[in-house]
Amino acid sequence: MFRSRRAEKAYRACQEALARRDAQEGLRQLELAASLGHPKAMTDIGNLRMESGDAEAARELWRRASEAGAGKASTNLAAEAERRDDMAEAEKWWRRAAEQGEREGALGVGVRSYHRGDLAEAERWLALAAGDGDEEAARHLDVVRGELRAGEAEREEEQGWEQGELTEEALLARLQAGDADLAESLFRQAAMEGDAEAAFNLGLFYQRSGNLAYAEPLWRLAAQRGLTAAVYNMAILHEQRGEQAMADVWLVRAAEAGEFRAQASVGQRLLRDGNHEEAERLLLAAARQGSVAATCSLGSLLAGRGETLSAEKLWEHAARGGDGYAARRVAQLYEDRGDSTEAAHWRAVAEQAGESTTDELGPPALLLARLYPQ
Length: 374
Fold this sequence. Notes:
Structural class: mainly alpha
Oligomer: single chain
Distance between the termini: 98 Å
């Protein structure tokens, strides 16, 4: 560390002049201290040279100051190198600053190590800076440690995969995260060999990744192999494209194969068209599998035949499953009877429900068994 008494005296004189607002004398003393090799003075004069546009003079002063032990000069050189996109030079000076005890230097080395992919080195330096109270370093440290944990987990999963121990939950998590390599390795070969479920699952992965163009031929293959879920997905795909005629063809196929959502959809369409016998068959099949939409529509069919009490029970069940239309029909029935309390209750249920349903409530099995004994 620099110990020239003349330089120290000039630097103190600079500070005293600045304290009494004598900027001219302060600058004169600062330049004298810098010329005598004072590290802080050289750093400050370097700052002034950089502000005036003389970058080369600034860098030279900062280099001399850094060699004399001024950590701040080292950080200035690092930051200036980054502005010039000279990252190798920047890291050299960040490291010098860190070794000189500059918290900002430790942060800089940590960040540069992270960008180079050296997470262990990044963690070491960022932990040092964060330990000194640097909030930015603490934020970076959280990111680095998160990636280190993720990397360790991935290595453990890969080891488990090699040993045949990877859990179904871990596989699903990686697929949901968009692991295309895993999806391909799990399903592609089996799909090409005619495995309908493998083709369907790979199609689902592509769908969730936003690539329906890849999903469609896989679902078509699975549908041709008789997988009902794939038949239904083909119907929905065509419907989303606005190709209703093709969607209807696939929906009928799915309904006949026993897919309850397709049965509900086709049954509702047949009901609107007046084909009550066929509509009832499909709606009943879907309701028995728990379709809320089919249960509501079956209630409407029975109501049209004058079987109001049976319709009401079906609507109540559908309303509890989230069907707003069914709740409104129940509310109207109670209102017609003059039961305003129950009517208000079901209107409130309707307001909280939507037109779409969850199909998760389960079928009204006992009621259906009474209405349609097998």
